[in-house]
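Reviewers of the previous submission asked for a worked example of the structure-prediction workflow described in the proposal, so we include one complete record here. The input consisted solely of the amino acid sequence. No template or homolog information was supplied to the procedure at any stage.
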Amino acid sequence: MKRTNPRPPKTEHEDSSESTTEISAVPEAPGDVSGFSQVALGQRLRDARRDAHLTLQQLSQSSGYSVTHLSQVERGHACPTIGALRRISDAIGRDIRGFLEISPLPETSLVRRDERMKHLHEGGLVHSEPATHRVPGGEMAASIVVVKPFGTQEMAQKSTGDRSRFFYILKGRVEMILNGQPRWCEADDAVRVAAGTEMSFRNVDREACEMLTLTLGGEV
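From that input alone, the workflow returned the following structure tokens.
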């Protein structure tokens, strides 16, 4: 009987370079209801690589994946795993989350004053205006919060945020009630509030108070 030598196990490098059958980072069906597919992912990776002035050979050397495999991914013929996508995005110098958005996001966000949309709260006494749109991998959102003068008998509604927030008073004075403890804040004061803090605002002055708010971990 003819004996055959068993094939040696693949090294980690060989396995990661050619594997396309593990859990995919995005749906493989181009007609997915999200409107996002591996073809779109490949195009985004190609655009990002070119923006970084990298050749496929250079990306291959820095990511550890073969030029052939990277070319297949960029043309939408192969779908990388989450682990592979992370290594490729790191080699390009981009945040992996930017490649997984349903719609591509700009690298920078500029919102003019007259473009900000107002969201009313507490019967119109408080309104917020998102100051920026999302960017790839963004973990912080900014908004302008305006607290109008309250009547002497009007009570602020309590709310509990599930994300950490930072407030910088731009104009006026405001009473912030944090976990039942009132604190008066005025222009140039800054307040950091931990996630889960029960808070409310009151403005008993004659002028509106304006605050810059930064929310960590998502949209305002």
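The chain has five helices and ten strands. We consider this example representative of the routine output the project will generate in years two and three.
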